[in-house]
Write a structure and sequence with these properties.
The chain is of the alpha/beta class and 210 residues long. The chain is built from 10 helices and 6 strands. The chain has helices at 11-21, 36-45, 62-72, 87-95, 108-119, 127-139, 151-161, 166-173, 177-190, 196-205, and strands spanning 2-7, 27-33, 50-53, 77-82, 100-103, 124-125. α4 (87-95) links the parallel β4 and β5.
Length: 210
């Protein structure tokens, strides 16, 4: 059974999602949230396999909410269901940690397919956005390693190369030391490096340390 948390500040939208999920015998709507704060609170209270969320809600929203969720629950699968069909918004959500991006109005069958695929570790993009995002991704392939990082990872990268300890980074960003350590591990993997020394050397080579 796939336990999901649905988040949208419009009750009618959440009702519609519940009805869609009721069509499936392998998906359970285990919780609801109507704001970014409610999302973070619900995720702290019990386990979910997947978050199906809008981007625009009261409290933390957009990529800020996605970053906060991934900070606290790096293994949680996320599917965004948004009214925005712009390539930049979808790309930003995916970079911030979402594995699925759908636009409202998509068929119910596609929502179910997205939830199932993302819960299994896959990715699912609204078919109308696929071509735009493929072009967007291919245009970015030549970027240097630090440009592969998410906003949070880049923020932590900058602090590491400045000589800030992981505990001090955690305190500055209001994160746990364990979360900062996880981000460090992922950014090292993305940049194909193995230590903070290599990060500092890279930053010096690229004029990123004054």
């Amino acid at each position: 059974m796939i336990r999901i948390l649905i988040a949208d500040d419009h009750d009618i939208v959440r009702q519609g999602i519940r009805q869609v999920m009721g069509m499936a015998g392998d998906i359970e709507v285990a919780g609801e949230a109507d704001s970014g704060w409610a999302v973070l609170g619900a995720l702290r209270e019990q386990h979910y396999d997947l978050l199906l969320t809008d981007l625009n809600m009261p409290g933390p929203s957009g990529t800020d909410l996605l970053n906060r969720v991934k900070d606290e629950h790096p293994g949680l699968a996320i599917v965004v269901l948004s009214m925005h069909a712009e390539r930049q918004i979808a790309a930003g959500a995916l970079k911030a940690g979402a594995s699925g991006y759908l636009t409202k109005g998509i068929p119910a069958s596609s929502i179910l397919a997205a939830v199932r695929k993302v819960a299994r570790g896959g990715r699912y993009i609204d078919p109308e956005l696929v071509d735009k995002l493929v072009f967007f991704t291919s245009a970015d392939e030549g970027k240097v390693p630090h440009e592969r990082l998410s906003e949070r990872e880049y923020q932590i990268f900058q602090l590491i190369v400045q000589g800030t300890s992981l505990n001090d980074i955690a305190e500055q960003l209001h994160l746990s030391a364990k979360t900062v350590s996880s981000h460090k591990k992922r950014l090292l993997q993305k940049m194909e490096m193995t230590s903070a020394v290599e990060l500092v050397r890279y930053a010096l080579q690229h004029g990123m340390i004054i």
